[in-house]
Every structure is written in structure tokens, then in C-alpha cells.
């Protein structure tokens, strides 16, 4: 199947800062380029961290005056308070950066974002040099695929090339990314596989197999027909 790769979705023209970039210059960079985070690089572009609006706002929150004279954000951990006191990118950044490779699929990138609880991934090559950045919005772009394109991939790649089903065996309807399969399969055991494979096609929102019948129930001893 033709899974979209990160290098097809990522932003290639990425603004970055150096480790010694000052706080106000970082804020200015974010504002001028209308981004919410920038990679921090060293040398020939090797990524060492990321500075986000959240990292910068930690300083603002920590410096706010509290009525009782206590720290404005008393639950900040030591490392967070140290970052709040930073004045350069290397002191403010989150490190190491959460990175992806250009050849990753959308599913792989989305899984890492979820596990790491980040809104974006820095894309690096084999030497950890910056080549792009991909955001949640970029990944969601796969759901803008046309229904006809999704249907064609399911019919040709999933049902035809992979499962070797006759074209007339299963009809595929796609509406707003929702896939409905109708027809008859040789074996009941094919149902979970066909549903799982269709669900992994880029742009698919849901898959319904309730209108798929089968000739032989190979999931029970002795078999049967439906």
C-alpha cells in the first residue's frame, strides 16, 4: 500500500536558531515567522533541541508576582525553574529534540507524537541534520484525500494485489473517508484482516464490514457457511 511518508508532508524551509540565540531574539523569530517552536542547531545543522512558546512562557509565569511573596508557580520542578531562568536557547530548549526520519509513515510519526505528547516532530537525516519539521496539522492532511483515491487504493492494493480477490467479489463504497465493504468472501477468517488492512489506508476514517458475508467459517472446528 502507498503510505504517505513524512518527507511528502513536512515543511522543508525550517527556521532555526543557534544555542547562543538570546531570549528576545527567539521571541522575535517566532513572531516574524508565525511559528510556535524552532529547532536549536549547532555546527552544520545538527539538531540539539527545540525551543517552543511553552518553554518561553515558563519564564513569564515564573516571574509573575504572587500575592504572598511565594513563587508564582510553586509546583515547578528544579529543572523547570532552571529553564525559566535561562536567557539563551541552549538554556531554554527542550532536549533532546523528539525527531522523526524522512521515510517514516504518517502512522509512525503520529504514534511518536502521542507517546511523547508533542505537537510537532523535527525531521532529521542519518547524521541528525535538520531537513524539515512536521506538525499535527500536516499529518491530518492525509484525511483530505479524495474518496475516489481511497477507493482505488483499497480495490487495487488491498483487495486485488494483497488478498487476490476477484474484482466482483467485494464492492467498496467510500464517503468522507468512511469505508463500507459489501460482498462475499471465501472464508470468515479473512474479515479481521481485510478490516485491519483497509483501516491502515491513508485517509480512511472508519471501516464497516457488516455487509460482508462468507462461504466457509474457518474460525470454528468443522467449518460452516453463511
Structural commentary:
With 226 residues, this protein is an alpha/beta fold. The protein has two domains: 6-142, CBS-domain; 145-216, Histidine-containing Protein, Chain: A. It contains nine helices and nine strands. The protein has helices spanning 6-9, 23-33, 53-63, 78-84, 89-92, 106-116, 136-140, 147-162, 190-199; strands spanning 17-18, 37-42, 46-52, 99-100, 120-124, 130-135, 170-175, 178-187, 206-216. It has a three-stranded mixed sheet with strand order 1-2-3. A three-stranded mixed sheet has the order 4-5-6. It has a three-stranded mixed sheet with strand order 7-8-9, with helices on one face. Strand 5 and strand 6 form a beta hairpin. The longest helix has 16 residues, at 147-162. The protein is elongated, with a radius of gyration of 25 Å. The two termini are 30 Å apart.
